Amino acid sequence: MASCVRLLLVWAVFLAGGARAFVDEAVDVIRLSKEIGEEVLNSWDVLGRPFNSSSGVELPFIRRHERRVLARLGQVARAIERLEEKVEQNGAVARLLAGTGRRETRLELRLHELGDLLSRVAAAERQMRDYVRLQRELERSTLQDFAAWCVSHEPRALSGLLERVHALVRPPHQYLLGRGILQLMLEDLEERHPDVCELQLSPHQLIYDMYNTISLAEIKGYAMMQFSWMLLKIYGKGNYTQEASLTRERYVERTARAAAAARRETYAQVTRLLQGYIENEVDMNTEQTCKENCGYYTLAQNHGCFKDMYCARQPTCKGRIINCQYIDSDMTVCPAKKGSTRRYEWIEYENGNRFGQMTSECHRGKNKVDSWWRWLFWHCSYCMCLCDESGPTSDRYFSLWDATSDVKNNKVVTGIRLVKYGRVFHLQISEGTLGERGAVTPGGWVPVQKFDVNDAGVREGQDYHTLSYERRALDLDELDSPRGQILTGVRFSVIGAHLHFEIRSTPFNYTTGRLAPERNQWISNDNTDGSDAPRSRLELYKPDVPTRGPQPLQVDSKHDQYVEFTNSDFEKDAAQSTVPFVDIQPVEPMQGAALISGAGMIHRGARGSGGFVSPKLFTYDHSRHVHADPPPASLQTAEPDSMPMSNF
Ligand SMILES: *[C@@H]1O[C@H](CO)[C@@H](O)[C@H](O)[C@H]1NC(C)=O
Ligand SMILES: *[C@@H]1O[C@H](CO)[C@@H](O)[C@H](O)[C@H]1NC(C)=O
Ligand SMILES: *[C@@H]1O[C@H](CO)[C@@H](O)[C@H](O)[C@H]1NC(C)=O
C-alpha cells in the first residue's frame, strides 16, 4: 500500500507538471510505426525492377532476394522487440490481463479475449524470428507456408487475429457490441480506485500502456504480412503489389482509429475569436466600389452582398472585419463540415498557395471563387481577412466569479481545473478539510455556478469577461501565498484589457490546522502595460492547432507574462482555429490530499504550435514547519506558525 501511495504521488506530480507526461511512450510507438512503414516500403525496392513472376524464377535469384528480405525483417523485428521491452517494463497490462477471470463482467470477458489474441500474435512473431534465424537450414516450403498463413483470409490466420483485436478496441457495430475496451477500462478504473492502486498505476497510464501494447501487436502483424507478400512474390506466387497496398491501407486505418479510441477530451477551445474570412472588397464599403486594395481594409465591416457572388454562398461575418490581405485573385474553397466551428477546411489559390490541410476529402463540394475586373481598371479582389464576430457560435467568455473553498468549515483548495459550460469558461476547485500538521482530508469538486451570458442580470465586466480583438490577453502568473498562509480560492479578474488570475490566501495555524478566515486576502501580480517593467508577451510563432504534430509541449511561459488568444496560422490552418487551446484536465496532487499554497496560469507549447493554457498548483512547503516540530521542552523557542510575511 505504501508504494501505491508513492506511485500515486508520482502521478500527481506528473499531472501538476505535465499533462502530456505519458505521451512520450506513445510517441515512441507512433514513431516506430512510421519507421517500419518506411522500412517496409524500402524493402519492396530491394526486389528491384519488376520481374516476371509468372514464368518461374531462377533459384540463385530467389535465394539472394529471400536473404535480403529476411535480413530486413530481422532488423524490423529487433526494433519492435526493443520498444516492447520498454513498454512492458512496468508490466501493468500483463498483470491486468493475467488477473482477469475472477469476475465475469463484460470488461473481464473482453480482456480475456484480448489476452488470448495478443498471445497468438506474439507466438506467430516468435516463430517468424526463429525462421529468420534458421533460414539456411529451413526448407523453402516452410517459409512459404508461414508466409501464406500470415496473409491468409482464414479467420484464425494472422490478419483475422488483428481484425479481431481491432474490433475489441473499436467495435464495428457500437450498438450491438457496445463500447470499446479502452472506454470500458477507463470507466471501470474510475469506479474502482483500489484496484488501480493494486496495479500501481494511474488510469491514464494504463490506457496508454494498453494502447501501446495493442499498437505493437498491430505493427508486428503489419510487418509480418508485408514481408510475407514479398516472400510470396519472390517465390513466384504472384505480383501482390495491390494486395500489399491494401494491407497498408487497412493498417493505417486501424491504427488511426485505435489512437482516437485512446484519446480523451483533455482540452476545450475558445472558438471563432479571430477567424480567417474571405470577403470581396466590393462588399466592405458602402459605395460598392473596388477602388482600393485589400490592404486598405484594416478595420471594416460587411455592407452587403454584391450580385450574389461568393458572399451568397457563405455565412457573412456580422462583426468586424480586420487586417485584410491580398493573396491571389482566384481560388478554390472547401467549406467546413456542417456543425464545425471552422468556416473553411482549406483554400487553394491559383498561384499555388495552400491554406489549411488538404488531406481530407471535401464533403460539401468545392467552391470556385474568382475575383473580377470592373471596367478594365478596377479589380474587385477577394481578400483574406480576420472576422471578429461575437455571437452564438463564438465561445469567448470567462467567468469572473470567485471559486473559493468553504473556509468557515475549515476547507482549503486541493485541486483546480478549467471547465467550459455552454460558452463560458470557469475556474473550478476541489476542496478538502484541513487538519492538524498539514493533514488534508480530500473532499470533492465544488460545483460551478453555471450561467449563460444572455441570462437576465448577468453583466459583462461583472460576471464575465468577453474576449475581442483588443481584449484577448490572458495574464500568466505563478502566485504563492505568504508564509503561514494557504490557498483557499482562485478567480479571474480584468485589469486593463487583460484577463487576470488571482489567488486567495488564508492564514492558518499549522499545529491545530485552524484557518483564520477573517484574515483572507486576494493576491495577484498587478503589473500592467503602463508600468516601468511591463509584463512580456509570450509569442506564438505561426501557431498550428496544438493537437497536431508529434512534438511534446513543454511549459514555455514564465511568471509575469501574458499570452494573447489569436487565430491559428494562415498556411497551416487557414486561420480557422483560436489558439492556445484550454487544458481542461484537473490538477489535483495526491488525489486531493495535498496541502496547496499557490496557483498559477501557465502555457505549454512549442515553436509552431498554439499550445495550451492550463492552471498549475504549488504544494505547500512543509519544511517551513520543521522548526515547529520540536521536542516539547523547547516549545517556547519554536517559530510562530502563522506569521504573515510579505508576498514572495
Ligand atoms: C504488378 O502490379 C502492379 C499494379 O497492379 C503493376 O503496376 C506492375 O506492373 C505489376 N508487375 C508485374 C511484374 O506484373
Ligand atoms: C512472363 O513469362 C511468360 C513465360 O515465359 C511469358 O509468356 C510472358 O510473356 C512473360 N511476361 C512478361 C511481362 O514478360
Ligand atoms: C497555534 O495553536 C496552538 C494551539 O492552540 C497555540 O498554542 C499556538 O500559539 C498557535 N500558534 C499561533 C501562531 O497562533
From TrEMBL:
Ranges in a coiled coil: none
Keyword Kinase appears in the UniProt entry: no
Keyword field: Signal
InterPro entries: DUF4803
Region (Disordered): 623-648
Origin superkingdom: Eukaryota
Biased composition annotated in UniProt, kind: Polar residues: 634-648
Signal peptide: 1-21
UniProt cross-references to Pfam families, sorted A to Z: DUF4803
PANTHER family in UniProt: LD24308P
Protein name: Peptidase M23 domain-containing protein
Originating organism: Leptidea sinapis
